[in-house]
Amino acid sequence: MDRQSLLHELLDELAAHSPAAAMRHMRQWPGGRLSLVHVNVLAILELDGALTMRGLAEAMDVSQASTTGIVDRMEQRGLVERQRDDEDRRVVRVALTEEGRRLIAGMTAERRDHLAAMLDTLTDDELAGFLLGSRAMRRARDRYHAGQHPTPDSPGAPGAPGGPDAPATQEATR
Fold first, then answer.
1. 53-60 and 36-48 are packed helices; what angle lies between their axes, rounded to 10 degrees?
2. Please, which residues have CB within 8 angstroms of residue 79's CB and are 6 or more apart in sequence?
């Protein structure tokens, strides 16, 4: 199979995941529905730590008024809390609660369990191929996010001469 056909089939496989299935799963989450907005807030606060309302609004790319309503609902569910700044009482920070941290940990554990169950159905050869492909995808994603967009023939690219997956040449082994 040529490279273009491989790319086309791989993109079809990667794009086959249905966002609707993920939403259906979040609607069945213990403790009530979990919206994508709430997941986004949880992820931002887990990554960045406590943020001011303004900082959270900017991270979410919404107005402060919208952020206030979102935080109100999440606070009622015990996922986040507002904290007054010790230095300046006018400043309010939004932080994860223990319940918010438990929810994130539970989502991570459940995702890992589901992935393990799916991977368990693969043969050893399929697992080895999937691991190789997943590592290649992670390297490509890291390069992409670093602003580097090498082509497969770029020096140092996997499989290219001198790249990490390049076959050893006689000169390289001397």
1. 120
2. 38, 41, 42, 96, 97, 99, 100, 103
In this structure, the number of other CB atoms found within 10 A of the CB of residue 148 comes to 12
Considering the domain 17-121 in this protein, what is its CATH number? 1.10.10.10
Six token digits for residue 67:
């952020």
Q: How far is CA 92 from the centre of its chain?
A: 28
- Per-residue pLDDT tens over the stretch 44-53: 999 999 999 9
- Domain spans of the chain, in order of start: 17-121, 123-162
Q: What is the pLDDT of residues 119-174, one digit of tens each?
A: 999 999 999 999 999 999 999 999 999 987 766 666 555 555 555 554 444 444 33
